[in-house]
Write a structure and sequence with these properties.
It is found in: Nucleus. This protein has about 375 residues and is α+β, with helices and mostly antiparallel strands. The protein has helices at about 40-45, 50-60, 95-100, 165-175, 180-185, 220-230, 285-295, 300-310, 340-350, and strands at about 10, 20, 35-40, 65-70, 75-85, 85-90, 110-115, 115-120, 145-150, 165, 190-200, 205-210, 215-220, 235-240, 245-250, 265-270, 285, 310-320, 325-330, 335-340, 355-360, 365-370. The radius of gyration is 24 Å and the shape is flat. The two termini are about 35 Å apart. Residues about 1-15, about 125-145 and about 255-260 have low confidence and may be disordered.
C-alpha cells in the first residue's frame, strides 16, 4: 500500500520547536484521546534521545513511558508513546489535556525534546473583541451552505453511526436560530431533537444533536442515512438551517471525469469459477490494480486499518442497476477479496464464468459493472 499522503506538519523550527502540527478532529476527540504524530519527525527529533531498549520496545509495537511537560502551564505529565507503523500516538493523559486546554481542530501544537523530557506548547489564541451577534438572522437559502464537511471513515461507520460537526460552525450557523431553552439543554450536555431534511430526496428525519465539547454529534437516524444514500469516505456533506429545520445534502455525482488517456474502468477481469461460486462467495481482485486504483484514494487511517485488520468495510454500487451494498475488502497478500453481499450479486445478476466485471473507485464508493454479453 503505497503513496502515503503528506502530513500538515513542519519538522523544523528556528525557535527551538522541532515538531509542529495543526491539530485535526481526531487529535481533539476526547472519546478516543490520542495525538497522532508522523513517523519521520518523531524518529529524527525524539527517538534519537531514547535508549536502545526503549527503541526496541517501540519496534516490537510496545508502548514506552515518557515524561512530558506543558510549557504553557509548567505542569508535568507521565505519558506513553506508541508506534503505529507509519505514525506514532501520544497517549495517557492526552484526553485530560484536550479538555483542560480547550483544544480545537486547527490549533497548532509545538513539540521538542529537552533535558530528558518531551516539551509541548499550544499557544493561546489572541481573543478579539467580538461584534454583538444579531439574533434575527436573514433567511438562509439552500444554495448558501455555511457548513461543509468531507466525510471520514468514522463518519460513515454504520456500527457507531454519528456525524461530528465542528463546534464553532454549529454555534454560528445552527444554534443562533434556536431558542434560549434549546441552547441551555445543549449546555447541560443533554441532547435536543431536531428535524432534518434530506434536500436531495425530500425525506424528513427526526434526529438528535448532542454537545461533545469541541464538536457536536448528529445522531439518531444517521446510520440509516449512510446506508440509504450510500455514503462513503471522501464525499462532501453540506448543511444549513432553514424553515426551522436542519437541511443537508450529499449530491450524487454520476458523471465521472475521465482524463485524456485514462480508462474509465481501470480494473477489468474475466470472472473465474471461484468468482461465481455461491457456496463460498467472493470476488478476487489483483493486488497491484487494487492498490493503484482503489487504495490510492483511501485515507491514511483506512489504509492502516486494512493493513492491520486485513479487512475494511466499504460502500459498493452496482452501476448497472443503481443498487447499493455495504461490503468488505479483504487483503490476502498479493490479491484482495470483495466479500459480504457477493453471493447475492452473483445470483441477482446471474454471473457466469467468462463474463467481464469492471471496477473503479468514485466519490468514496467502489463502483462495479458486468455488462450484458
Amino acid at each position: 500500500m503505497r503513496r502515503a499522503r503528506s502530513y500538515n506538519v513542519s519538522s523544523q523550527g528556528q525557535d527551538g520547536w522541532t515538531i509542529r502540527k495543526t491539530l485535526t478532529s481526531s487529535d481533539v476527540d476526547i472519546t478516543h484521546p490520542f495525538l497522532t504524530l508522523p513517523r519521520q519527525p518523531v524518529e529524527n527529533h525524539i527517538l534519537v534521545h531514547l535508549t536502545q531498549l526503549e527503541r526496541n520496545q517501540l519496534n516490537n509495537r510496545e508502548q514506552v513511558t515518557i515524561n512530558a511537560r506543558d510549557e504553557d502551564t509548567g505542569e508535568n505529565h507521565v505519558m506513553k508513546l506508541k508506534w503505529r507503523g507509519s505514525y506514532y500516538n501520544l497517549i495517557g493523559k492526552w484526553g485530560k489535556l484536550v479538555r483542560a486546554k480547550g483544544l480545537d481542530a486547527g490549533r497548532e501544537i509545538k513539540l521538542r525534546w529537552l533535558n530528558g523530557c518531551l516539551h509541548f506548547s499550544v499557544p493561546t489564541l489572541q481573543v478579539m473583541t467580538a461584534i454583538p451577534i444579531q439574533m434575527v438572522a436573514p433567511p438562509i437559502h439552500r444554495e448558501q451552505w455555511p457548513i461543509k464537511k468531507v466525510l471520514t471513515l468514522s463518519d460513515v461507520d454504520t456500527n457507531h453511526p454519528f456525524l461530528p460537526l465542528a463546534r464553532r460552525s454549529v454555534e454560528d450557523h445552527i444554534l443562533i436560530h434556536w431558542t434560549q431553552q434549546q441552547r441551555e439543554l445543549l449546555r447541560n450536555e443533554e441532547q435536543v431533537n431536531v428535524n432534518a431534511l434530506d434536500v436531495d430526496s425530500g425525506e424528513m428525519y427526526v434526529m438528535k444533536l448532542r454537545w461533545r465539547g469541541n464538536y457536536y454529534n448528529l445522531i439518531g437516524k444517521w446510520g440509516k442515512i449512510i446506508r440509504r444514500k450510500g455514503l462513503g469516505v471522501g464525499k462532501e456533506i453540506k448543511i444549513c438551517w432553514g424553515n426551522g429545520c436542519l437541511n443537508f445534502s450529499v449530491p450524487y455525482e454520476r458523471n465521472v471525469v475521465v482524463l485524456p488517456g485514462q480508462e474509465q474502468w481501470p480494473i477489468k477481469k474475466a470472472l473465474t469459477l471461484s468468482d461465481v461460486d455461491t457456496n463460498h462467495p467472493f470476488l478476487t481482485l489483483p493486488g497491484k490494480a487494487v492498490e493503484d486504483h482503489i487504495l490510492y484514494y483511501l485515507t491514511l487511517q483506512a489504509r492502516e486499518q486494512l493493513r492491520i485488520e486485513r479487512q475494511l468495510n466499504i460502500n459498493a454500487r452496482d452501476d448497472d442497476t443503481g443498487d447499493l451494498y455495504i461490503m468488505k475488502l479483504k487483503w490476502r497478500g498479493s490479491y484482495y477479496n470483495l466479500i459480504g453481499k457477493w453471493g447475492q450479486i452473483i445470483r441477482g445478476k446471474r454471473l457466469q464464468v467468462g463474463r467481464e466485471i469492471r471496477v473503479r473507485w468514485d466519490n468514496g464508493c467502489l463502483i462495479f459493472s458486468v455488462p450484458e454479453s
